[in-house]
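Handout, section 4.2: multi-component inputs.
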Amino acid sequence: MTALSTAPGHVADRAAARPAKRSPAGLRGTPGQWSGRFVVALVLLAFGLFFAIPIVWLLLATTKSPTDLIQNNPFSFGSLDGFAVNWNALFAFQDGAVVGWLGNSALYSVVALAITLVVSVPAGYALALTEFRLRRALLVTTLVVMLIPNTALVLPVFLELNTVGLIGSPLAVILPFSFFPFGVYLTYIYFSTSIPRDLLAAARIDGCTEFGVFTRIALPLATPVVALVAFFSFVQNWNNYFLPFVMLPASDQYPMQVGLTSLLASTPAFNPSSAGAASVQLPTLALATIMSVLPVLIVFLFSQRFLVSGMTAGGTKE
Amino acid sequence: MTATVPDVEATAAAGVTPRLGRSPRRPGRASVRRSPVKNRMGYLFVSGYTVLMLVFGVFPALYALVLSVTTIDGSFAGFDNFAKVLGDYRFLPAVGHVAVYLVIWLVSLLVLVVLLALVVHAIRIRWLSNASRFIFYIPGALAGASSVMLWLFVLDPSVSPVGWLLEAFGFESFVQTINPANLPVVFTVIAFWTGAGGWIVIMYGALNNIPEEVMEAAKIDGANAVQTAVRIQLPMMKKWIAYMGIMSLAAGTQLFVEPQLLSQASNAVVANDYSLNQLAYLYAFQQNDFNGSAAISILLLVIALALSAFFVARGGLFEKD
Amino acid sequence: MVQAPERTHSPRRRFRSLALLSGAAAIALLASGCAGGSSSASNGEFGFPETEQQADSTITVWVDNTRVAAADAFKAANPDVPIDVVTYDGSANGSNSFQTKIQLFDKAKKGWPDVVWSTQTNDAAWASQTSPGSQPFAAQLDGGLVDSELIDGFTAGSLDPCTVDGKVYCLRNDLAQNVLWYDKTLFDQFGYTLPTTWEEYQELGEKVATEHPGYIIGAAGDAWTPEIYMWASKCQAGDVTAVREITVDTTSEECQRMADLLDTSIANGSITTESVFSPSFVQKYAGKVLAMPGPVWYSGAIFNSPDSLNVPAGQIGAATPPTWDGEDVVTGNVGGGTWYISSHSANLASAKKFVEFAATSDEYQVELNPGLPAFAAAGEKWVAKQADSGYFAGDLDALTDSASLVWSGWGSPTFSQEAVWAKTVTPVITSGGTVSDTLEEWGQAIKDQAQVNGYKVG
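Output:
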């Protein structure tokens, strides 16, 4: 942990753009710096454990038999065979329904994500950097809509989609997903705090059209926030349970989250009456959980790459 | 948060290249001249979003508003629905539960997320910074049914990976861990575990966007890490923090997922009418009373809006500077 | 009210379709006594307003994971009846999915499934009632839709949860009455005799506590504890006297005596306050369950389950539940699933065919049902089959004998008694309090819950 430093700024990130500035103290920090580093290390370690322990337990759970899960040390490793058994049990559930659920989740989340980006990023930009009469009204309305409990919106949205005959079509899930006020606010705050106006003004003087300013100047600078919005939109769609549950009448259209409740309801621990030949065991449920989380983590790792390329790095790509 | 920002203009090499962002917070800037072109662009840019918002936000909200003041057969009911839900024996306890939870949750989230974001941002080793953000985030990927089983085990001292910790608190069984007195803290732990990582990522992004010149200037002025955080980083994150405050308020007042999850895991020992939002859900889908349900939702909205006003004002959320 | 079909199925319509159509039409006509289905709001000939019937249209069937087998068996037996199977969580674990979805369909005025499986016994109470602007979801079954002989073939009392205001709205899939499960090997080893009264049961507990501490004779940590103990004691926790009227009296002698029994046994450790499905229960009590009053499905869910107690073959036996000295034997009931036909169905003939098959046929009930069939004839065969399996010690007559002994003074309202108990009593007894002290509070909680669900409390 010697290289932990309380000096702010990402030297490594910026190394590409300019020679890194070594902190004057170098590696031999003053006592003050060392104690600072120690505190930082301690905080990191404590919270790292807090976030990681349950996940580690869950990963290990997928390798155990139901009995091992209860009888053995929580941090013991089961066996690869145990993992294989759980794997096979999961994919045997309702003739491999899990594959279909994952596919549905991917379809709904990705299409909704595309629509979200196309509508949200320009909206956030316009709210932050252009003048038009309804700007403030739109900001306030967006905020109000974000604060309404979802419970209140289920019935009206269901009736709306029912009126246009969309219930049971993928669009019944994708369209409501595409409305992502959270993302609009993220882009709005980003553009209003991180984009130097002089830059936009300069571009206008250079004869860029308003549209050109957005596509050539603002968007390249906005990579981090686009990555953020994309990621959060994806996660929210991927993890949404109630909307798909209400909008989709057929089980082969379920996304993973709704499927998971079916799995949960097939485990004797949560539904004693399901005890029987077709029941699901807890380690299998743990594996299903891991499967449902993996895509989100992959998307996370992917979007992180864009997140750290801050505005200053983007600015050089003229 | 009344820290004075050191005079950036004086210390930073002014405007060397376009990529040197000036401090974007310059009050009293002359408003941008309107031109018909820009006006039209603005409308065009927000049009898609506006349509979606009307269809999936505004109209449904208005419908809920109408529901809350009408009877089940559609005649005007005035405030009858509100009177009915206020008189429900489950209502006041639920208000109490949510209020206690909200205080614990909001304070711990705001403080810890900002702290952790600053800490992670201060790490110089790139892989470590990435890895810690990743680890903090992982739980955010778990939702709904996937966490029911996890918490059933984690909160049961006899099988929990942190059993020693629970036993240190004197809990011997799952039901003791989730006794009503502990619930606000338990829900805060669950909500923080699943929700903090996402905010840390957002705050980290915000910190990354503070121009390096500003930070350098502070260092040259002899500010240490804590002073830099308080005087520069925090004020520059004001909008982000305000936004997080509002979103967490909304999430807190609409507490639903965590109690629902524990209700399932504990086979109803944690009641499914713990929070107001659960009550709204029960009204709609257990009692078939969508009007009462809408009334609770509208009440929640009013509370959330009133509380948000504070953050909007303090964070300058609508300011276009 | 023309009902658009939910999803256009792609039926394999070939030359047989014509013959099929006329065949199904003939069945429908036979079943309906040749009256053309009127789609007006007036009641059809089965006692509810019918939608226009479309012979051989596809029916949508909602089942939970365990009941997929029933749908598969039906398909195998009736390849010419087009059905569309949808799996859902069966409304288990208080999820209320069934009611949630139906209420939305009611508002949309379309989209209802034709047949629904439910894990709960609380659904008939709402499904039999009109909701604003919509007729009751559940079709009345004993108004001519299902043959009366078939309905009479169900075990006495088993259709109580399906019966509202004297009309039957669902068919029971499996029985869930309580029996006294016991470990014969342990009884022989300890030299104890099986208790036949609750008094003896309590004494047994006291003996076990002193002579073999750590062994248990029951569990009271589950949400269905009142259904096992209080119900069997004729405690009036919820007597549904009319469609929306309920009588609650939890301070009666009947409740008090069982509360005392529980308190004594919990205090001496012979009854545990762990839930039988909690991970720690298995840790602590595998091999230590001497006896346990509980529903019939405990056999497969707890004793003969590798993930629970996993008791070896030849040890576990079933006895008739204990009774209070000098009283008739009555018992309680925990769950037991139900089958519903939608009153909105455009193909009542096929829906009826499916439900009758699932609830009464040997192909499903005897061969595949994990629970004890509620249909008496199938039930007997099922018990015989279980007895032949060699798992149980002694005969299983107790299962058949106790099937019709469920006390009828405990109704099935729209709300869950289990949730009320779990919320008010469970936390008290797990933290050292007594059931006796919470009886009143428990009763009040039931009354409150009944009131917000629209019941007049007596």
